[in-house]
Design brief:
The complex is a heterodimer of chains A (about 210) and B (about 200).
Chain A lengths: L10 H8 L5 H11 L4 H19 L7 H13 L10 E4 L1 E5 H7 L9 E6 L3 E9 L3 E10 L10 E5 L5 E6 L5 E8 L1 E8 L3 E10 L3
Parallel strand pairs in A: 1-10
Antiparallel strand pairs in A: 2-3, 3-4, 4-5, 5-8, 6-7, 6-9, 9-10
Chain B lengths: L5 H8 L3 H9 L3 H21 L4 H18 L9 H17 L12 H6 L7 H19 L2 H12 L6 H8 L6 H18 L6
Helix pairs in contact in B: 1-3, 2-3, 3-4, 3-5, 3-7, 4-5, 7-10, 8-10
The chains are: A alpha+beta (about 210), B mainly alpha (about 200).
C-alpha cells in the first residue's frame, strides 16, 4: 500500500500525481488521502503546483554576474547599517472635503463631484473625485508652495493599504494627474519626491 | 551566472523575508546577498520586459539594490517585500525612460504605460515574476547534484529522459528517482521556510 490514512504523502508522490505519472490505483489512493481531508498534504500539493507552474512559465532573467556582485558590494562598501528612516513619508492632512460641507448644510447629494484638499507644510493636493458605475475618476493637482509655472514631473501611485502598487502615473508640467475608472475601495495616493514621499492615506472611493 | 557560496549562506536561505531583512539591518552581508539572490530575477526582468536595453537594465538593478539597502528599515510590510520592489523598479524604469520621451502637456494614467510600452500590465504578472525569482533562488541554494538535477527536470525544454539526465550528471540512471525525491524535499523545505506558501 503506497498510502494509508496515517502516512502523509511525500513531495515525490505529489509530483508524480501532478505530472500524471501514477497508476490508476496509486492515483486513487492519493485522492482518497487528500479527501480525508489531509490539510497538510493538500497545502503541500498546492505549493508544489505553484512551483511547477512557476518553473513551466519562467521567462525571468538573472542579471550578469558582475552586475549582481556590484549590488552585493553595496552591503560591503556601505558598512554603516542601513538607515532606518532615510526616506521619510509625510502624510498629508485633510483640510477640505466638499462631502462634509454639503452634509453639514443638509444638501448631501446635491452634486456628484467631490472636492478634497489635502495639505502638508510644503504642498497642497487638490482632488476631484467623480463617481461612475462602480468606479470613480480621480483628477488631481499637486501644488507646492512658491511653485513655478512649470514643475518637474512627479511619480504618483495609487496603492493598497498594504503598499501594493495598483496604478501609477506622472504629473504634468502643472502638477496635474488623473486616474480613470478606479474601482470603489480605500487607497493610499503616494507622491514620490526626491527624498520623501507624500501620502494621502485611507482615501475612500465609493458611490456617494 | 552568479554562483553563491552555498555552504556559508545557506542558513539565511531558510529565513522568511522579515527575518532576513532584520539580519541585514544588523549588518549581515550574507543576509544581504541572500536577499538579493531571492529577488534578483524579479528586479532585473522588469526593465527587460519594458523593453529597456541590457545596459539600462543593469543600471536599474544597481539603483534598485541601492534603494533597497538604504530603505530596508522603512519597508512597511516586510512580509510583502516583492510588491515594494515592483513599485521601486517600475519607478526606476520610468526615470530611465522619461528623458527620452517627447514632452506632453496632459497626462493620464495610460501615460505611464505609454512610456513603458511593452511591459507587464497586471499585478498577476508581477506576482508570477516574484514567484519565478524565488523558486530559482531556492534551487540556487541547493548543492550541486540537487541544483543540477532539478534545473534539468524543471527548466529544460523538452524535459530530458532519465538516461540523458544520468549521462549529463554522471550518476547511475537507477539513482535518479531516489535523488529526485531527496532533492525535491530539500527544495520544498527551503521554499516553505522562506514563506513561499504565504505569497
Amino acid at each position: 500500500m503506497m498510502v494509508d490514512s496515517m502516512t502523509h504523502l511525500k513531495y515525490d508522490i505529489l509530483l508524480n500525481y501532478l505530472q500524471d505519472q501514477l497508476s490508476a490505483e496509486e492515483r486513487s489512493q492519493v485522492e482518497l488521502h487528500l479527501a480525508e481531508p489531509c490539510w497538510r498534504c493538500g497545502r503541500q500539493l498546492a505549493l508544489l503546483r505553484t512551483v511547477l507552474h512557476s518553473t513551466a512559465e519562467d521567462r525571468s532573467v538573472a542579471p550578469p554576474a558582475a552586475v549582481f556582485e556590484r549590488a552585493v558590494d553595496i552591503g560591503r562598501s556601505q558598512r554603516e547599517l542601513p538607515r532606518r528612516s532615510s526616506w521619510m513619508r509625510v502624510v498629508a492632512a485633510l483640510s477640505f472635503d466638499s462631502r462634509l460641507q454639503l452634509s453639514a448644510a443638509g444638501t448631501r447629494g446635491a452634486t456628484r463631484v467631490r472636492q478634497l484638499l489635502f495639505s502638508t507644510e510644503q504642498m497642497d493636493i487638490d482632488l476631484q473625485v467623480t463617481p461612475g458605475r462602480g468606479d470613480n475618476d480621480v483628477l488631481g493637482q499637486m501644488l507646492s508652495t512658491g511653485q513655478p509655472e512649470e514643475v518637474a514631473p512627479v511619480f504618483v501611485s495609487l496603492q493598497s493599504s498594504t503598499g501594493e502598487l495598483l496604478r501609477a502615473t506622472e504629473t504634468d508640467s502643472r502638477g496635474q494627474f488623473a486616474f480613470r475608472q478606479v474601482p470603489f475601495g480605500t487607497y493610499d495616493l503616494v507622491f514620490d519626491l526626491e527624498n520623501q514621499e507624500v501620502a494621502v492615506t485611507g482615501l475612500e472611493l465609493q458611490n456617494d | 551566472m552568479y554562483t553563491m557560496q552555498r555552504m556559508t549562506v545557506q542558513p539565511f536561505a531558510l529565513l522568511p523575508d522579515p527575518e532576513l531583512i532584520e539580519a541585514c539591518l544588523k549588518g549581515s552581508g550574507q543576509a544581504w546577498e541572500v536577499l538579493l539572490v531571492r529577488y534578483q530575477r524579479l528586479i532585473y526582468s522588469i526593465p527587460l520586459r519594458y523593453g529597456l536595453p541590457e545596459h539600462d537594465a543593469n543600471d536599474v538593478f544597481q539603483n534598485v539594490s541601492l534603494l533597497l539597502w538604504e530603505n530596508l528599515g522603512r519597508v512597511r510590510d516586510r512580509a510583502r517585500l516583492g510588491p515594494w520592489l515592483v513599485i521601486t523598479t517600475r519607478r526606476e524604469c520610468w526615470r530611465m525612460m522619461r528623458p527620452r520621451r517627447p514632452n506632453v502637456t496632459v497626462l493620464e494614467e495610460s501615460a505611464l504605460e505609454e512610456i513603458l510600452p511593452t511591459g507587464p500590465r497586471s499585478e498577476d504578472e508581477f506576482l508570477a515574476l516574484e514567484q519565478q525569482s524565488q523558486v530559482r533562488a531556492a534551487i540556487g541554494h541547493l548543492e550541486a547534484p540537487c541544483r543540477e538535477l532539478l534545473s534539468l527536470l524543471f527548466y529544460a525544454e523538452p524535459r530530458p529522459p532519465y538516461n540523458e539526465v544520468a549521462e549529463k550528471l554522471a550518476i547511475p540512471e537507477g539513482s535518479i528517482g531516489p535523488t529526485r525525491s531527496r532533492c525535491l524535499d530539500k527544495l520544498m523545505k527551503i521554499l516553505e521556510n522562506m514563506g513561499f506558501a504565504d505569497m
